Every structure is written in structure tokens, then in C-alpha cells.
Amino acid sequence: MDATEFRRRGKEMVDLIADYLENIEQRTVYPDVEPGYLRSLIPEEAPEEPDTYEDVVKDIERVIMPGVTHWHSPYFYAYFPTANSFPAMLADMLSGAIGCIGFSWGTASEATLVALLAARCRAVRMILASDPQRPETGITSKLVAYSSDQAHCSVERAGMIAGVRMKKIPTEQSDKYAVQGETLRRMIQEDKAAGLIPFYFCATLGTTPSCAFDHITELGPICNAEKIWMHIDAAYAGSSFICPEFRPLLNGIEFADSFNFNAHKWLLVNFDCSTMWVKKRSDLIGHWQIPLGRRFRSLKMWFVFRMYGLKGLQDYIRKHVELAKEFESLVRADQRFEISADVVLGLVCFRLKGSNEVNETLLKRINNGRKIHLVPCLLSGQFVLRFALCARTTESRHIREAWQLITQLAEEVMQELPH
Amino acid sequence: MDATEFRRRGKEMVDLIADYLENIEQRTVYPDVEPGYLRSLIPEEAPEEPDTYEDVVKDIERVIMPGVTHWHSPYFYAYFPTANSFPAMLADMLSGAIGCIGFSWGTASEATLVALLAARCRAVRMILASDPQRPETGITSKLVAYSSDQAHCSVERAGMIAGVRMKKIPTEQSDKYAVQGETLRRMIQEDKAAGLIPFYFCATLGTTPSCAFDHITELGPICNAEKIWMHIDAAYAGSSFICPEFRPLLNGIEFADSFNFNAHKWLLVNFDCSTMWVKKRSDLIGHWQIPLGRRFRSLKMWFVFRMYGLKGLQDYIRKHVELAKEFESLVRADQRFEISADVVLGLVCFRLKGSNEVNETLLKRINNGRKIHLVPCLLSGQFVLRFALCARTTESRHIREAWQLITQLAEEVMQELPH
Predict the structure, then answer these.
(1) ipTM, 2 dp
(2) Which of A24, A168, B87, B390 has a 20 to 30 Å separation from B163 between CA atoms?
(3) A68 contacts in B (CB within 8 Å)?
(4) Which residues get modified to N6-(pyridoxal phosphate)lysine (chains A, B) (predicted)?
(5) Rounded to whole angstroms, what are the CA distances from B416 to A117, B49, B409, B411, B412?
């Protein structure tokens, strides 16, 4: 669907919404279906080829509406109101289109926290089962959680919220910034010797700084043997696993207790839409999410899966990865620059060969120009520029234009500063 | 704005969005404004009378766009992608219109938790300041938080997440289910005598079961004297405070450390949009919210404030309260029924004079009919029906129709069951 078709479909949707709200009182306010009614109405899997938009729209009445509680019907007097007005809907349409992220980029943060809370519960339960005399209050203060020093800041914050010790596992450039089994094993042994109780490890597939992948085939069996909850944060990289060629990055997933990725990052579903899997449902009950309420987020996922089809989604991921490779080639062809981390998906970490100062100045110059926008990261103490493929509409010409701008500014900076 | 105007404005918005996305690369990707630039561009207060929609739309370019980072520009290579596609936007429009709440009704839950975490931090900091030798790990296990036995379940859950003791303060029908100062004072003294550290009290203005209001003019000074963080959960009732006649319900707010209400409940702003105030900004830094990212929610609030004006919003609240009073009169005029709690805002708690069984049967019969939808609550062990004014479009005729249905079913039930 392009902008031209969106103009048409958007207007149809506006009419559909107006019709829905004008006639809402003719609908049965409370659904007369059993949980699971959807299963027989929709296919087991997302379509390989896109569905037609007409089919999707037809299914709104056939599939979705029979299960909806009509909160805005004048026959609805349950709970408390949930607001709804035409101006708010218009603003929300615009907000969805602007699609800017308020503070940073993730509700994977919540998945990390939720998994940690479930792990804390499980750990306390197991300890009390083996030693019922032990006072429960003392257990939490002995618990220790781990993550990579490359992990997202939300992991540390989750530990702080839950009031448990959080330790960062050091990574090395020579290991491609991935956590190694040996390092985790050693830290666990040291902590156990000191009387602590290791209970949670947050592995990352596709770290924020450099898109590094922790070795979960090594780490998983260690966690399982030590009864440590292994949560996998694949917030960004997770979307790529719909392509068979990237699936090997997921090897070891069978050892995980929980897994999260953000469909709102790289799978064409507007913010926010974060997905989480858990191995044992019962571990998570009571902790599904922090807020009680949630938006009807799966609706947009369903539209996207159907309108793109698996193939369309795969093409989209592959195109971004190709564009990243194209940018990598441009960087490698220029002797003044270096690539700072393996380019696996849609992120290229690069820098001028030279001081941090020269790279900081380059980035400042780039962003002050306001033509393109990049953010940095620190890798082994080096100031590195992150070139992340983001927009749905990015083409090869944008990449080349960006590179031209970067090299031009680099030239200026190198003439001005010692490097 | 009615459905007819929405048809027109919605289609204009679709074009505006398509124009925005088709031409996004001509925009400056990263804003060239200083924090606070908005202040001089918008009025200090929401308009008393509605603005015109044309004015609102004009301000999108004048006010909003200069501050936007265009995450979907092909010149944006920062962070990671945030997804955006036409089908997802269409689905989100529909999702906003359906506006059903996924699980229950609140992200006030998050405010409660966030306030509790800040309170925990502050308490630990104060204790360590007065006794630097004390081990930090022991402090949390001594902390105790309080809330009414009428408080939302999310309060208890917040305590569980933060790993602190949570105590429920009993309320009485004779006190209109409000927490009394004397009860709180006594519990604090008992807990302190037992070596515990009271640190947090969540007061409710407008409880979920019966819309009861805790006596914050009494409770506030006690909390302040004991250095207990007082959080006020006004998730539902908060919207009514835009009407001067309901403002006295807020007396004592000056003692609160934090305050929350959900604009998405009763202020015409689509789900989700929860607002929180905190007395001392620095107490909350690092805890603003659980997820890192957030949607651009203030946009819809701005549209709604401008398109309704303060007057329009006040009229809306007053209309719901009047409809609730109308329903209350119908109940009071029928000797078989009784009102179970004061009707202050848009909630009427009522029951058949008789057993819980007869009331449970009545509610089941009502909901099975699927014409109207109500949920129950328990008040002093009595099964009570909650009639909450919810829909934007509810009129007097819907109230009368609902009452006719209820009395008709009540008659059937009373003939079948002893009561």
C-alpha cells in the first residue's frame, strides 16, 4: 500500500469508523462468544503472499466484531468510562503517522522487568521449597542478576526496580562484544562462593550499541543447569528472524525461559507493539504487564501481516540489510574510515581512524547540518558512529547522499583537527 | 465535532498524513529548537470556548512540526527503526475508534508503582542519611506501605513488584468507605512499635467499587508529619475536577507528594492517556515510567482541549453526573431497590433489597440479555450492581430504557427466587 492507496483506504476507514460509531447502539454490547472463538476463523499462519485489502476489511465484521465488547455503546455501564472523541481520534491518526518516540526506543524494557519479576518469584519459591524455615525477607537481598555490559540500560533499571543486585558481564572486541559462556560460568561460581544466589540472566540478540549477539547456545545450558532464568532481549533483531537466512542467530532459543522482540521496531507495525514469549505460562501469571489496561495492539499487527504477507515482510528486512551492506562497502572503500563491528543486520558502526575527539566533532557537524541524523556509541572506549537503517522509504540514493555528506564533513573536520 | 464532521475532517487528515509522508524528506530531519520553544507558541491555559478545527490544523505546522524529530525520514539513521506502515495506521485508526480496553481499566497502575518506587528510594535515602552504618539490604524488608481496602488491585501489585509489605486499611459503610485519619494513625503507631518503617500511603479519590473519597485533609498532615509519601489515585474522579463544583473533593491535595488521573477515562481523550503530577521533580527522576518509549499522547489531549474548550469538557462531565442522578432517582423511587453508596459523580451503586444470591442472579440475567452491560462490586459483604455512565453518547432515553430492562428482569428473578 502506497500513499495514493492510503488516501483512498484511509477515507474509507474514516467512513467505516463513523458508520461504526453512529450505529453502535444497534450492536450487541457484550460479545456472545467463547474464548478461543477466533481460532477457527483465522488461518494458523500469516499469509505467504499479501491478502487483498478488501479481504481484510471484510474480516472486520466476520472475525473481529463478534468478539468486541463495545465500550462506547450507550448500553455499556460497566467498570468506568474509557474516553473516545473524534478530535482525539484525529490526533491519534496524526500521532501514528508522525510516529516519533517520546523518550527512547523500547517497551522491551517492560518485558525485561516482567521476566525479572517472574524469575525473582520463581527463585524465592524454589528456595523456600527446599528450606521452609528460611525467612523470605532475607532471600531477595542475596539474589543476583546478570547481563552483558552491552545490554540496554533498561536491564539495570529492572534490577533496581525489583530491588535485586545486578552485575554486568564484561565483553571484548575480540569476541565481537558477545557474552561468552566461560565468563558467565566464572561469575556464577564466584557469586555462589560469596553466598549470593544467581537467578536471572538477560541475554541480548542484537545489542543496541553494535548489534552483537550473545552466545546463547553456550549460555543457555549453563543457565538451565544453575536454574537461572534466561531472558532473551531481541528488541531490534527479533524481526529479522522471519527470514530463514537469519534464523541461525536464534540457535539456542530452546534454553530460554522468555523471549521478547519489538514488532514496532522493524516489522512495519506502528509504535507501540512489543511481543513476548514465555516457556512456562504459569511462571508469568500475575505479572503479564505493568499497566492493567492495554490498547488493541494486535489489530495493527494483523493488518500488517495480511497486507504485506510473509514475503513482503521478508523483502523489507532484506532490503534494509542490503542497504546496510551497501553503506558498509562505501565505508570500507574509504581508507580514512574503519568499520567498528560486524555488520549483521541493518546497523553499521563506523568511525574515522583517529581520536575520539575527531569523531565526536564529525558527529556534531553531521547532526548540526540537520540533513541526516545519527547517534553514537562507545565500543571498547572508542567513540563510534551508528548508521542504523530506519525509514521504510530509504533507498540506495539516500545512502549514497548520506555518505557523500559524511565524507565531505569528515574532510573539513580532518583539516581542522589533528587526528 | 459529530460523526458527519468527522467524516470530512478524517478525510482531510488522511490527506494531511499522506502529504506529510510523501514529502517527509523535504523536512529538516532533526529539530532546530531549544527545549521550551513551545511555551511562547501556545497559550498558558486550555481555551474556555472551543477553538475552530481550522486553527488547530494550522497550528500543526506552526507549533508542533518545528519540534518533531522525523523518525520516518529517509535521512534518519539514529537509534533503531520505529515501524510505520499504512496498514498499521489504518488498523490503529480502527483500534482507536473501537477503543476497547484489553484487560481492565487503567494505566493509573503504573503511576501508583512509579510513586511507590520513588517513595522507596526516598525512604532508603533518608534512613541511610540518619544512620550511615545501617546495611541497605535490611531496610526494604522493614518498609510498609498502606492503602484503603477499597483501593484498586494495582496498589497491592505495586507493593509486590517493589518487594515491600503492603497493608490494607479497613473502611466502613458508616464512613462512606473512606479511609479515616484515626485509623491510619493507629496502624502507623502499631507498625512503628513493631520495628517497621511506614513509607507510602496511596489515597484514592473516587474508588473503583463505589467512588468513595478518602479524607485527604485528615490523612495528608499525618503522612507529612511521618514523612510518608502520599500518592493520590484519582484515576476516574480526576477528570471531574475541571468543574469548580467538584473541586472541593480535591481539598487536601497540598499534602500530596504525587497525584494521578486518567484523561482516557472521562475526559474524552482516547485510551491511553494517564497524567501524573509530582511535588518534587527530583524524587521521580529515573523513575518517570516503566517503558523507555512512549507514544506522542499529548497530541490527542491538545486536540481535545482545543476542540471542546473547557466549557465543552465541563458540560460533558456535568451531563454524565446528571444522568447518574437521574438513574439514582429511578432506583430510589422503586421500593424493591436500595442505593448502596452516595452518588457523587457518574457511578450509581444499587441492589435489590434481598440476598446476594438474588442480586447475583439479577446481574447474570442482565448481562446474558446482552442489551446492557454492568459489572458488580462487593460493599461490606453485599453484592452490589455498579451502573457507571460510560459512553459519550448516552442520553436520558438510554438510562430509562436500561432501568426498564433492569426492573423487568428483577421482577422475573424475584418471582423465581426467595429474597
Answers:
(1) 0.85
(2) A168
(3) 98, 100
(4) 265
(5) 49, 54, 11, 9, 6
The pLDDT tens digits of the residues spanning B361-392 come to 999 999 999 889 898 999 999 999 999 998 88
- A72 touches B: beta carbon within 8 Å: yes
Residue of B nearest to A6 (CA): B86
Residue A386 has pLDDT above 90, yes or no: yes
Same-domain status, A405 and A276: no
Q: Does B345 touch chain A (CB under 8 A)?
A: no
Closest CA to A370 of B31, B74, B73, B61: B31
Same domain, A87 and A125: no
Whether B93 and B148 share a structural domain: no
- Domain of B359: which CATH number? 3.90.1150.10
Instruction: Give the helix/strand (H/E) hosting B410.
Output: helix B396-416
Helix (H, G, I), strand (E, B) or coil at A333: coil
B251 touches chain A (CB under 8 A): no
A196 touches chain B (CB under 8 A): no
User: Is residue B186 in a domain?
Assistant: yes
3-state SS class at B252:
coil
Q: Are A173 and A76 part of one and the same domain?
A: no
List the single residue in A with minimal CA-CA distance to B370.
A30
Q: How many residues belong to chain B? A: 419
Q: Structural domain of residue B43, as residue ranges?
A: 3-102
**B336 in the same domain as B268:** no
- pTM of this structure: 0.88
Among A102, A117, A151, which residue terminates a domain? A102
